[in-house]
Amino acid sequence: MRWSQMFAPTLRDAPNDAVAPSHRLLVRGGFMRQLHAGHYSMLPLGWRVHQKVAAIVREEIDGLGGQEFLLPTMHPASIWKESGRWDTMGEIMFRLEDRKGAETALGITHEEIFATVAAELTSYKQLPQIWYHIQTKFRDEARPKSGLLRVREFHMKDSYSFDIDDAGLDKAFDAHDEAYRRIFQRLGVPAFGVQASSGAMGGNSSIEFMTPSDAGEDDVIRCPKCDYSANIEKATSALSAIDDGEPTALETFDTPGVRTIAALETFEGGAAATHQLKTLVMVLDGTTTLVVVRGDHQLNTQKLADATGAIEIRPAEVEETVAALGAHPGSLGAVGVTDHPVIVDLALEGRVNMTTGANIDDKHHRGVSVERDLTVAQWADLREVAAGEACANCGTELTVVRCIEIGHIFKLGTKYAETFGVRVSDADGNVVPVVMGSYGIGIGRNMAAAVEAHHDDKGIVWPVSIAPYEVVVTVMRLDDETLAAGNDIYVALKDAGVDALIDDRDARAGVKFADAELIGFPFRITVGPKGLANGEVEVTDRATGETNAVPLTDVVGMLAERCNEARRG
Ligand SMILES: [Zn+2]
Q1: Least enclosed by CB within 10 Å: which of 139, 169, 227, 228?
Q2: Cα 396 to ligand 1 centroid, rounded to whole Å
Q3: How far is the CA of 548 from the centre of ligand 1 (A)?
Q4: CATH number for the domain formed by residue range(s) 251-380
Q5: How far apart are CA 215 and CA 498, in angstroms?
Q6: Which residues, in sequence order, are bridge partners of residue 500?
Protein backbone atom coordinates (compact mmCIF):
# COMPACT_ATOMS: atom_id res chain seq x y z
CA MET A 1 0.00 0.00 0.00
CA ARG A 2 1.14 3.52 -0.79
CA TRP A 3 0.33 5.94 1.99
CA SER A 4 -0.30 8.71 -0.55
CA GLN A 5 -3.31 6.63 -1.71
CA MET A 6 -4.37 5.31 1.69
CA PHE A 7 -7.43 6.51 3.60
CA ALA A 8 -6.08 6.84 7.14
CA PRO A 9 -7.51 10.01 8.65
CA THR A 10 -5.40 10.56 11.78
CA LEU A 11 -6.53 13.18 14.28
CA ARG A 12 -4.63 15.42 16.67
CA ASP A 13 -7.33 15.12 19.33
CA ALA A 14 -9.56 12.35 20.58
CA PRO A 15 -13.33 12.85 20.94
CA ASN A 16 -14.31 14.44 24.25
CA ASP A 17 -16.11 11.36 25.55
CA ALA A 18 -13.16 9.03 24.86
CA VAL A 19 -11.52 8.01 28.14
CA ALA A 20 -10.27 4.48 27.53
CA PRO A 21 -6.87 4.50 25.74
CA SER A 22 -8.11 2.06 23.08
CA HIS A 23 -11.07 4.32 22.33
CA ARG A 24 -8.91 7.43 22.04
CA LEU A 25 -6.15 5.84 19.98
CA LEU A 26 -8.32 3.82 17.58
CA VAL A 27 -10.23 6.99 16.69
CA ARG A 28 -7.15 9.25 16.54
CA GLY A 29 -5.20 6.67 14.54
CA GLY A 30 -7.89 6.60 11.86
CA PHE A 31 -8.95 3.00 12.55
CA MET A 32 -12.63 3.68 13.13
CA ARG A 33 -15.36 6.26 13.39
CA GLN A 34 -18.53 6.21 15.47
CA LEU A 35 -21.72 6.17 13.41
CA HIS A 36 -23.96 6.44 16.48
CA ALA A 37 -23.54 5.34 20.08
CA GLY A 38 -22.23 1.79 20.18
CA HIS A 39 -21.88 1.36 16.39
CA TYR A 40 -18.53 1.92 14.68
CA SER A 41 -17.52 2.12 11.05
CA MET A 42 -14.28 0.22 10.55
CA LEU A 43 -11.95 2.20 8.29
CA PRO A 44 -9.31 0.35 6.24
CA LEU A 45 -6.65 0.26 9.00
CA GLY A 46 -9.19 -0.91 11.59
CA TRP A 47 -10.61 -3.58 9.32
CA ARG A 48 -7.12 -4.93 8.58
CA VAL A 49 -6.52 -5.41 12.33
CA HIS A 50 -10.00 -6.84 12.81
CA GLN A 51 -9.42 -9.40 10.04
CA LYS A 52 -6.04 -10.39 11.45
CA VAL A 53 -7.59 -10.99 14.88
CA ALA A 54 -10.37 -13.03 13.25
CA ALA A 55 -7.82 -15.02 11.23
CA ILE A 56 -5.93 -16.06 14.38
CA VAL A 57 -9.18 -17.08 16.07
CA ARG A 58 -10.24 -19.00 12.95
CA GLU A 59 -6.90 -20.83 12.73
CA GLU A 60 -7.07 -21.97 16.35
CA ILE A 61 -10.69 -23.14 16.17
CA ASP A 62 -10.01 -24.89 12.84
CA GLY A 63 -7.12 -26.53 14.71
CA LEU A 64 -9.68 -28.14 17.06
CA GLY A 65 -11.50 -29.58 14.07
CA GLY A 66 -13.99 -26.73 14.04
CA GLN A 67 -16.16 -26.35 10.94
CA GLU A 68 -17.10 -22.83 9.88
CA PHE A 69 -20.74 -21.90 9.23
CA LEU A 70 -22.56 -18.65 8.72
CA LEU A 71 -25.97 -18.50 10.39
CA PRO A 72 -28.41 -15.61 10.08
CA THR A 73 -28.39 -12.72 12.46
CA MET A 74 -32.15 -12.08 12.24
CA HIS A 75 -34.16 -14.78 14.00
CA PRO A 76 -37.84 -15.61 14.35
CA ALA A 77 -39.14 -14.89 17.86
CA SER A 78 -40.62 -18.39 17.99
CA ILE A 79 -37.17 -20.00 18.37
CA TRP A 80 -36.29 -17.74 21.29
CA LYS A 81 -39.69 -18.37 22.84
CA GLU A 82 -39.13 -22.11 22.62
CA SER A 83 -35.93 -21.86 24.67
CA GLY A 84 -37.52 -19.40 27.08
CA ARG A 85 -34.92 -16.75 26.35
CA TRP A 86 -37.35 -14.42 24.55
CA ASP A 87 -38.34 -13.43 28.10
CA THR A 88 -35.10 -13.94 30.00
CA MET A 89 -32.95 -11.84 27.65
CA GLY A 90 -34.95 -8.78 28.70
CA GLU A 91 -34.05 -5.39 27.27
CA ILE A 92 -30.61 -6.42 26.00
CA MET A 93 -32.18 -8.05 22.94
CA PHE A 94 -33.13 -6.00 19.88
CA ARG A 95 -36.61 -6.96 18.70
CA LEU A 96 -38.49 -5.83 15.64
CA GLU A 97 -41.48 -6.69 13.52
CA ASP A 98 -41.48 -7.34 9.82
CA ARG A 99 -44.13 -5.99 7.42
CA LYS A 100 -46.50 -8.81 8.27
CA GLY A 101 -46.21 -8.11 11.95
CA ALA A 102 -44.08 -11.20 12.64
CA GLU A 103 -41.80 -10.74 15.64
CA THR A 104 -38.08 -11.16 15.06
CA ALA A 105 -34.91 -10.70 17.09
CA LEU A 106 -31.40 -9.64 16.20
CA GLY A 107 -29.02 -12.34 17.39
CA ILE A 108 -27.14 -11.76 20.62
CA THR A 109 -25.79 -15.33 20.56
CA HIS A 110 -26.63 -18.47 18.56
CA GLU A 111 -27.22 -21.50 20.84
CA GLU A 112 -30.81 -21.83 19.65
CA ILE A 113 -29.98 -21.31 16.00
CA PHE A 114 -27.12 -23.81 15.91
CA ALA A 115 -29.36 -26.28 17.74
CA THR A 116 -31.94 -26.06 14.94
CA VAL A 117 -29.26 -27.19 12.49
CA ALA A 118 -27.91 -29.83 14.86
CA ALA A 119 -31.36 -31.43 15.00
CA GLU A 120 -30.33 -33.26 11.81
CA LEU A 121 -27.68 -35.24 13.70
CA THR A 122 -28.89 -38.81 14.12
CA SER A 123 -26.13 -41.04 15.45
CA TYR A 124 -23.36 -41.04 18.02
CA LYS A 125 -21.08 -41.99 15.14
CA GLN A 126 -21.35 -38.42 13.86
CA LEU A 127 -20.07 -37.02 17.17
CA PRO A 128 -18.15 -35.12 18.37
CA GLN A 129 -18.77 -32.00 16.29
CA ILE A 130 -17.42 -28.47 16.75
CA TRP A 131 -19.26 -25.82 14.74
CA TYR A 132 -18.64 -22.11 14.65
CA HIS A 133 -19.16 -18.88 12.82
CA ILE A 134 -17.81 -15.35 13.00
CA GLN A 135 -20.95 -13.27 12.83
CA THR A 136 -22.36 -9.89 13.81
CA LYS A 137 -24.13 -9.77 17.17
CA PHE A 138 -26.40 -7.11 18.59
CA ARG A 139 -26.88 -6.05 22.20
CA ASP A 140 -29.10 -3.17 23.21
CA GLU A 141 -26.68 -1.80 25.80
CA ALA A 142 -28.14 0.90 28.02
CA ARG A 143 -24.92 2.89 27.95
CA PRO A 144 -22.54 2.01 25.13
CA LYS A 145 -19.09 3.46 25.87
CA SER A 146 -15.33 3.01 25.79
CA GLY A 147 -15.12 2.57 22.02
CA LEU A 148 -15.06 -1.09 21.06
CA LEU A 149 -15.23 -2.26 24.67
CA ARG A 150 -18.99 -1.79 25.08
CA VAL A 151 -20.89 -1.65 21.82
CA ARG A 152 -24.32 -2.53 20.49
CA GLU A 153 -23.07 -4.20 17.29
CA PHE A 154 -19.95 -6.38 17.11
CA HIS A 155 -18.40 -9.47 15.57
CA MET A 156 -18.05 -12.56 17.66
CA LYS A 157 -16.64 -15.99 17.02
CA ASP A 158 -19.03 -18.36 18.71
CA SER A 159 -18.45 -22.08 18.56
CA TYR A 160 -20.64 -24.92 19.76
CA SER A 161 -19.63 -28.44 20.64
CA PHE A 162 -21.90 -31.49 20.35
CA ASP A 163 -20.99 -34.64 22.25
CA ILE A 164 -22.59 -37.91 23.23
CA ASP A 165 -21.84 -37.50 26.95
CA ASP A 166 -20.39 -35.29 29.68
CA ALA A 167 -16.92 -36.74 29.23
CA GLY A 168 -17.00 -35.63 25.61
CA LEU A 169 -18.16 -32.16 26.65
CA ASP A 170 -15.31 -31.93 29.17
CA LYS A 171 -12.85 -32.68 26.38
CA ALA A 172 -14.32 -30.07 24.02
CA PHE A 173 -14.41 -27.55 26.86
CA ASP A 174 -10.77 -28.16 27.81
CA ALA A 175 -9.72 -28.00 24.16
CA HIS A 176 -11.39 -24.60 23.82
CA ASP A 177 -9.81 -23.47 27.08
CA GLU A 178 -6.37 -24.27 25.65
CA ALA A 179 -7.15 -22.79 22.23
CA TYR A 180 -8.34 -19.57 23.86
CA ARG A 181 -5.12 -19.27 25.83
CA ARG A 182 -3.13 -19.70 22.60
CA ILE A 183 -5.31 -17.09 20.88
CA PHE A 184 -4.71 -14.49 23.59
CA GLN A 185 -1.00 -15.21 23.53
CA ARG A 186 -0.86 -14.74 19.77
CA LEU A 187 -2.89 -11.51 20.04
CA GLY A 188 -0.52 -10.22 22.69
CA VAL A 189 -3.36 -9.88 25.19
CA PRO A 190 -2.38 -10.93 28.74
CA ALA A 191 -5.17 -13.24 29.90
CA PHE A 192 -6.23 -15.48 32.74
CA GLY A 193 -9.30 -17.64 33.30
CA VAL A 194 -11.78 -17.15 36.13
CA GLN A 195 -14.84 -18.96 37.44
CA ALA A 196 -17.88 -17.04 36.30
CA SER A 197 -21.61 -16.76 36.63
CA SER A 198 -23.32 -18.35 33.64
CA GLY A 199 -26.07 -15.74 33.83
CA ALA A 200 -28.67 -16.03 31.08
CA MET A 201 -26.75 -18.78 29.26
CA GLY A 202 -28.28 -21.35 31.55
CA GLY A 203 -25.20 -23.54 31.73
CA ASN A 204 -23.80 -25.25 34.78
CA SER A 205 -20.14 -24.36 34.49
CA SER A 206 -18.24 -21.57 32.80
CA ILE A 207 -14.87 -19.88 32.57
CA GLU A 208 -14.41 -16.24 31.69
CA PHE A 209 -11.12 -15.00 30.28
CA MET A 210 -10.02 -11.67 31.65
CA THR A 211 -7.31 -9.15 30.95
CA PRO A 212 -6.45 -6.64 33.68
CA SER A 213 -7.33 -3.06 32.64
CA ASP A 214 -8.71 0.07 34.26
CA ALA A 215 -10.93 0.43 31.19
CA GLY A 216 -12.75 -2.80 32.10
CA GLU A 217 -16.11 -3.26 33.74
CA ASP A 218 -15.60 -6.51 35.62
CA ASP A 219 -14.14 -6.96 39.07
CA VAL A 220 -12.18 -10.15 39.60
CA ILE A 221 -11.23 -11.54 42.97
CA ARG A 222 -7.74 -13.02 42.89
CA CYS A 223 -5.60 -14.77 45.45
CA PRO A 224 -1.98 -13.63 45.16
CA LYS A 225 -0.79 -16.98 46.53
CA CYS A 226 -2.81 -19.86 45.13
CA ASP A 227 -4.56 -20.11 41.76
CA TYR A 228 -7.96 -18.95 42.98
CA SER A 229 -9.61 -16.32 40.84
CA ALA A 230 -13.29 -15.70 40.24
CA ASN A 231 -15.57 -13.02 38.91
CA ILE A 232 -16.96 -11.01 41.82
CA GLU A 233 -20.39 -12.28 40.70
CA LYS A 234 -19.30 -15.75 41.75
CA ALA A 235 -16.38 -15.33 44.17
CA THR A 236 -16.38 -16.69 47.71
CA SER A 237 -14.05 -16.21 50.65
CA ALA A 238 -13.48 -17.59 54.12
CA LEU A 239 -15.00 -15.64 56.99
CA SER A 240 -13.57 -15.61 60.48
CA ALA A 241 -15.68 -17.42 63.04
CA ILE A 242 -17.79 -15.18 65.28
CA ASP A 243 -18.72 -16.00 68.86
CA ASP A 244 -22.38 -15.13 69.39
CA GLY A 245 -22.69 -16.61 72.88
CA GLU A 246 -25.78 -18.55 73.93
CA PRO A 247 -29.10 -17.75 72.23
CA THR A 248 -31.30 -15.41 74.23
CA ALA A 249 -34.95 -14.42 73.95
CA LEU A 250 -36.14 -12.07 71.23
CA GLU A 251 -36.57 -8.58 72.58
CA THR A 252 -37.73 -5.26 71.07
CA PHE A 253 -36.04 -2.00 72.08
CA ASP A 254 -36.34 1.70 71.22
CA THR A 255 -33.85 3.18 68.80
CA PRO A 256 -35.02 6.75 68.18
CA GLY A 257 -33.51 8.25 65.04
CA VAL A 258 -31.38 5.17 64.27
CA ARG A 259 -31.68 4.56 60.52
CA THR A 260 -28.43 2.91 59.48
CA ILE A 261 -26.18 -0.01 60.34
CA ALA A 262 -23.46 2.47 61.31
CA ALA A 263 -25.78 4.44 63.60
CA LEU A 264 -26.83 1.26 65.39
CA GLU A 265 -23.17 0.35 65.93
CA THR A 266 -22.60 3.47 68.04
CA PHE A 267 -26.05 3.58 69.66
CA GLU A 268 -26.04 2.57 73.31
CA GLY A 269 -27.35 -0.99 73.48
CA GLY A 270 -26.80 -1.39 69.72
CA ALA A 271 -24.52 -3.93 68.06
CA ALA A 272 -21.44 -4.22 65.86
CA ALA A 273 -22.25 -4.49 62.15
CA THR A 274 -21.09 -8.11 62.19
CA HIS A 275 -23.89 -8.79 64.70
CA GLN A 276 -26.61 -7.01 62.73
CA LEU A 277 -28.91 -8.25 59.99
CA LYS A 278 -29.20 -6.02 56.93
CA THR A 279 -32.65 -6.43 55.38
CA LEU A 280 -33.06 -5.34 51.76
CA VAL A 281 -36.47 -5.17 50.15
CA MET A 282 -36.10 -6.23 46.53
CA VAL A 283 -38.59 -6.82 43.77
CA LEU A 284 -37.81 -10.05 41.90
CA ASP A 285 -39.84 -10.37 38.70
CA GLY A 286 -42.63 -8.45 40.41
CA THR A 287 -42.51 -10.30 43.75
CA THR A 288 -41.55 -8.27 46.81
CA THR A 289 -38.82 -10.26 48.52
CA LEU A 290 -36.72 -9.73 51.65
CA VAL A 291 -33.03 -10.35 51.21
CA VAL A 292 -30.99 -10.61 54.40
CA VAL A 293 -27.20 -10.29 54.65
CA ARG A 294 -24.85 -9.56 57.54
CA GLY A 295 -24.72 -5.89 58.55
CA ASP A 296 -21.24 -5.30 57.14
CA HIS A 297 -21.81 -7.29 53.93
CA GLN A 298 -22.97 -6.10 50.51
CA LEU A 299 -25.48 -7.90 48.33
CA ASN A 300 -24.28 -8.94 44.86
CA THR A 301 -27.34 -8.79 42.59
CA GLN A 302 -25.97 -11.24 40.02
CA LYS A 303 -25.62 -13.82 42.81
CA LEU A 304 -29.23 -13.14 43.76
CA ALA A 305 -30.26 -13.58 40.11
CA ASP A 306 -28.30 -16.83 39.82
CA ALA A 307 -29.73 -18.18 43.08
CA THR A 308 -33.35 -17.39 42.27
CA GLY A 309 -33.48 -17.45 38.47
CA ALA A 310 -35.09 -14.00 38.61
CA ILE A 311 -34.66 -11.89 35.49
CA GLU A 312 -35.65 -8.43 36.62
CA ILE A 313 -34.32 -7.40 39.98
CA ARG A 314 -34.66 -3.95 41.51
CA PRO A 315 -34.75 -2.43 44.98
CA ALA A 316 -38.29 -1.69 46.15
CA GLU A 317 -39.41 1.94 46.17
CA VAL A 318 -39.94 3.47 49.60
CA GLU A 319 -43.73 3.40 49.13
CA GLU A 320 -43.62 -0.30 48.20
CA THR A 321 -41.47 -1.00 51.25
CA VAL A 322 -43.80 0.83 53.61
CA ALA A 323 -46.79 -0.96 52.07
CA ALA A 324 -45.10 -4.36 52.46
CA LEU A 325 -43.58 -4.04 55.93
CA GLY A 326 -45.24 -1.03 57.56
CA ALA A 327 -41.96 0.74 58.28
CA HIS A 328 -39.39 2.89 56.48
CA PRO A 329 -35.93 1.77 55.36
CA GLY A 330 -33.68 1.89 58.42
CA SER A 331 -36.13 0.04 60.63
CA LEU A 332 -36.72 -3.04 58.49
CA GLY A 333 -36.34 -6.67 59.44
CA ALA A 334 -37.48 -10.13 58.47
CA VAL A 335 -38.47 -11.40 61.92
CA GLY A 336 -42.00 -12.74 61.78
CA VAL A 337 -42.45 -11.92 58.08
CA THR A 338 -44.40 -14.63 56.29
CA ASP A 339 -46.24 -12.66 53.55
CA HIS A 340 -43.07 -12.25 51.50
CA PRO A 341 -40.32 -14.72 50.67
CA VAL A 342 -37.19 -14.27 52.81
CA ILE A 343 -33.85 -15.17 51.21
CA VAL A 344 -30.89 -15.30 53.59
CA ASP A 345 -27.17 -15.25 52.89
CA LEU A 346 -25.22 -18.38 53.85
CA ALA A 347 -22.91 -16.34 56.10
CA LEU A 348 -25.84 -16.07 58.52
CA GLU A 349 -26.31 -19.81 59.01
CA GLY A 350 -26.38 -20.66 62.71
CA ARG A 351 -26.07 -17.05 63.84
CA VAL A 352 -27.82 -16.04 67.10
CA ASN A 353 -28.13 -12.91 69.23
CA MET A 354 -28.37 -10.72 66.17
CA THR A 355 -29.89 -7.25 66.03
CA THR A 356 -32.27 -6.08 63.31
CA GLY A 357 -35.02 -3.60 62.50
CA ALA A 358 -38.45 -4.43 63.99
CA ASN A 359 -40.60 -3.14 61.08
CA ILE A 360 -41.73 -0.34 63.40
CA ASP A 361 -40.03 3.02 62.86
CA ASP A 362 -37.53 3.71 65.69
CA LYS A 363 -37.59 0.16 67.05
CA HIS A 364 -35.19 -2.77 66.66
CA HIS A 365 -35.08 -6.39 67.78
CA ARG A 366 -32.17 -7.96 69.61
CA GLY A 367 -31.59 -11.59 70.53
CA VAL A 368 -32.55 -12.72 67.04
CA SER A 369 -31.73 -16.35 66.24
CA VAL A 370 -31.77 -16.44 62.47
CA GLU A 371 -33.11 -19.97 62.08
CA ARG A 372 -35.56 -19.68 64.99
CA ASP A 373 -37.00 -16.24 64.25
CA LEU A 374 -36.92 -15.90 60.46
CA THR A 375 -39.09 -17.88 58.07
CA VAL A 376 -36.35 -18.62 55.55
CA ALA A 377 -37.59 -19.51 52.06
CA GLN A 378 -34.10 -19.96 50.64
CA TRP A 379 -30.47 -19.94 51.77
CA ALA A 380 -28.02 -18.71 49.16
CA ASP A 381 -24.56 -17.27 48.65
CA LEU A 382 -25.46 -13.62 48.14
CA ARG A 383 -22.70 -11.50 49.62
CA GLU A 384 -20.10 -9.70 47.56
CA VAL A 385 -16.55 -10.62 48.47
CA ALA A 386 -14.36 -7.61 49.34
CA ALA A 387 -10.62 -7.09 49.01
CA GLY A 388 -8.74 -8.16 52.14
CA GLU A 389 -10.99 -11.10 52.98
CA ALA A 390 -9.30 -14.48 53.31
CA CYS A 391 -8.94 -16.90 50.40
CA ALA A 392 -11.13 -19.96 50.99
CA ASN A 393 -8.31 -22.22 49.73
CA CYS A 394 -5.25 -20.86 51.49
CA GLY A 395 -6.22 -18.00 53.80
CA THR A 396 -4.21 -15.34 51.97
CA GLU A 397 -5.77 -11.88 51.67
CA LEU A 398 -7.73 -11.59 48.41
CA THR A 399 -7.30 -8.70 45.99
CA VAL A 400 -9.74 -7.14 43.52
CA VAL A 401 -8.53 -6.55 39.96
CA ARG A 402 -10.45 -4.47 37.39
CA CYS A 403 -10.61 -6.42 34.12
CA ILE A 404 -11.97 -6.58 30.59
CA GLU A 405 -13.78 -9.81 29.76
CA ILE A 406 -12.23 -11.08 26.51
CA GLY A 407 -13.79 -14.53 26.18
CA HIS A 408 -16.30 -16.82 27.83
CA ILE A 409 -16.78 -20.58 27.55
CA PHE A 410 -19.78 -22.53 28.86
CA LYS A 411 -20.78 -26.09 29.53
CA LEU A 412 -24.41 -26.02 28.47
CA GLY A 413 -25.39 -29.63 29.09
CA THR A 414 -28.55 -30.89 27.39
CA LYS A 415 -30.85 -27.87 27.89
CA TYR A 416 -30.85 -26.71 24.26
CA ALA A 417 -30.67 -30.23 22.87
CA GLU A 418 -33.84 -31.20 24.77
CA THR A 419 -35.69 -28.08 23.64
CA PHE A 420 -34.76 -28.35 19.98
CA GLY A 421 -34.79 -32.12 19.64
CA VAL A 422 -31.06 -32.60 19.12
CA ARG A 423 -31.06 -36.35 19.81
CA VAL A 424 -28.95 -39.18 18.49
CA SER A 425 -28.92 -42.91 18.99
CA ASP A 426 -26.12 -44.06 21.27
CA ALA A 427 -24.02 -47.22 20.97
CA ASP A 428 -26.82 -49.26 22.61
CA GLY A 429 -29.49 -47.92 20.29
CA ASN A 430 -31.07 -45.59 22.87
CA VAL A 431 -32.06 -42.12 21.67
CA VAL A 432 -30.35 -39.55 23.90
CA PRO A 433 -30.02 -35.75 23.90
CA VAL A 434 -26.69 -34.38 22.71
CA VAL A 435 -24.50 -32.61 25.29
CA MET A 436 -23.58 -29.08 24.21
CA GLY A 437 -20.98 -26.44 25.01
CA SER A 438 -20.73 -22.88 23.75
CA TYR A 439 -17.64 -20.71 23.39
CA GLY A 440 -17.52 -17.01 22.58
CA ILE A 441 -14.80 -14.51 21.80
CA GLY A 442 -15.40 -10.93 20.64
CA ILE A 443 -13.19 -9.83 17.76
CA GLY A 444 -13.39 -6.05 18.21
CA ARG A 445 -13.22 -6.38 21.98
CA ASN A 446 -9.91 -8.23 21.66
CA MET A 447 -8.61 -5.66 19.20
CA ALA A 448 -9.32 -3.00 21.83
CA ALA A 449 -7.84 -5.16 24.60
CA ALA A 450 -4.60 -5.45 22.61
CA VAL A 451 -4.43 -1.65 22.42
CA GLU A 452 -5.14 -1.36 26.14
CA ALA A 453 -2.15 -3.63 26.76
CA HIS A 454 0.14 -2.08 24.11
CA HIS A 455 0.26 1.70 23.88
CA ASP A 456 2.32 4.64 25.11
CA ASP A 457 2.01 8.43 25.09
CA LYS A 458 2.77 8.54 21.35
CA GLY A 459 0.17 6.01 20.26
CA ILE A 460 -0.45 2.33 19.72
CA VAL A 461 2.32 -0.29 19.80
CA TRP A 462 0.78 -3.16 17.84
CA PRO A 463 2.03 -6.70 18.29
CA VAL A 464 3.34 -7.84 14.87
CA SER A 465 0.64 -10.53 14.69
CA ILE A 466 -2.24 -8.07 14.36
CA ALA A 467 -0.59 -4.81 13.20
CA PRO A 468 -2.39 -3.13 10.28
CA TYR A 469 0.99 -3.22 8.50
CA GLU A 470 4.11 -4.77 9.96
CA VAL A 471 6.62 -2.35 8.46
CA VAL A 472 6.33 1.21 7.17
CA VAL A 473 9.02 2.38 4.77
CA THR A 474 9.27 6.12 5.41
CA VAL A 475 10.76 8.01 2.48
CA MET A 476 12.32 11.22 3.81
CA ARG A 477 12.62 13.13 0.55
CA LEU A 478 10.66 12.63 -2.61
CA ASP A 479 13.59 13.05 -5.02
CA ASP A 480 13.84 10.31 -7.66
CA GLU A 481 16.76 8.52 -6.06
CA THR A 482 15.40 8.33 -2.50
CA LEU A 483 11.92 7.38 -3.67
CA ALA A 484 13.35 4.64 -5.90
CA ALA A 485 15.45 3.24 -3.05
CA GLY A 486 12.40 3.27 -0.73
CA ASN A 487 10.29 1.62 -3.38
CA ASP A 488 12.87 -1.14 -3.95
CA ILE A 489 12.85 -1.95 -0.22
CA TYR A 490 9.04 -1.87 -0.11
CA VAL A 491 8.71 -4.25 -3.06
CA ALA A 492 11.39 -6.59 -1.70
CA LEU A 493 9.65 -6.69 1.70
CA LYS A 494 6.37 -7.65 0.09
CA ASP A 495 8.14 -10.32 -1.97
CA ALA A 496 9.59 -11.65 1.29
CA GLY A 497 6.09 -11.99 2.76
CA VAL A 498 6.21 -8.90 4.96
CA ASP A 499 3.02 -6.84 5.24
CA ALA A 500 4.58 -3.51 4.25
CA LEU A 501 3.43 0.06 3.59
CA ILE A 502 5.42 2.85 1.93
CA ASP A 503 5.03 6.39 3.20
CA ASP A 504 5.44 8.31 -0.05
CA ARG A 505 3.44 11.32 1.08
CA ASP A 506 4.66 14.81 0.35
CA ALA A 507 4.85 15.72 4.04
CA ARG A 508 7.39 16.78 6.63
CA ALA A 509 9.42 14.04 8.32
CA GLY A 510 7.96 15.05 11.68
CA VAL A 511 4.41 14.45 10.45
CA LYS A 512 5.35 11.07 8.95
CA PHE A 513 7.06 9.92 12.13
CA ALA A 514 4.22 11.09 14.37
CA ASP A 515 1.57 9.34 12.24
CA ALA A 516 3.60 6.11 12.15
CA GLU A 517 3.95 6.18 15.93
CA LEU A 518 0.30 7.01 16.52
CA ILE A 519 -0.91 4.20 14.24
CA GLY A 520 1.67 1.92 15.81
CA PHE A 521 3.46 0.02 13.03
CA PRO A 522 5.90 -2.36 14.76
CA PHE A 523 8.87 -1.34 12.53
CA ARG A 524 9.81 1.76 10.58
CA ILE A 525 12.51 1.84 7.92
CA THR A 526 13.66 5.41 7.36
CA VAL A 527 15.14 6.00 3.91
CA GLY A 528 17.03 9.29 3.49
CA PRO A 529 19.72 10.67 1.18
CA LYS A 530 22.37 10.80 3.94
CA GLY A 531 22.07 7.14 4.84
CA LEU A 532 21.84 6.06 1.23
CA ALA A 533 25.16 7.78 0.55
CA ASN A 534 26.64 5.27 3.04
CA GLY A 535 24.57 2.37 1.73
CA GLU A 536 22.39 2.41 4.89
CA VAL A 537 18.86 2.94 6.16
CA GLU A 538 17.57 3.31 9.72
CA VAL A 539 15.32 0.75 11.39
CA THR A 540 13.22 1.85 14.37
CA ASP A 541 11.53 -0.63 16.67
CA ARG A 542 8.23 0.93 17.85
CA ALA A 543 8.13 -1.06 21.08
CA THR A 544 11.61 -0.17 22.33
CA GLY A 545 12.08 3.10 20.46
CA GLU A 546 15.55 1.90 19.42
CA THR A 547 16.91 3.10 16.09
CA ASN A 548 19.79 1.37 14.32
CA ALA A 549 21.59 1.93 11.03
CA VAL A 550 21.31 -1.20 8.88
CA PRO A 551 23.08 -1.87 5.55
CA LEU A 552 20.70 -1.65 2.58
CA THR A 553 21.66 -5.18 1.63
CA ASP A 554 20.56 -6.63 5.00
CA VAL A 555 17.42 -4.72 5.86
CA VAL A 556 14.83 -6.82 4.04
CA GLY A 557 16.16 -10.15 5.26
CA MET A 558 16.45 -8.87 8.82
CA LEU A 559 12.87 -7.56 8.99
CA ALA A 560 11.42 -10.58 7.20
CA GLU A 561 12.99 -12.76 9.86
CA ARG A 562 11.85 -10.59 12.77
CA CYS A 563 8.28 -10.41 11.46
CA ASN A 564 8.15 -14.13 10.77
CA GLU A 565 9.35 -14.91 14.25
CA ALA A 566 6.92 -12.50 15.90
CA ARG A 567 4.00 -13.72 13.81
CA ARG A 568 4.57 -17.25 15.07
CA GLY A 569 4.27 -15.86 18.63
ZN1 LIG B 1 -5.46 -18.66 47.93
Answers
A1: 227
A2: 5
A3: 47
A4: 3.90.960.10
A5: 33
A6: 471
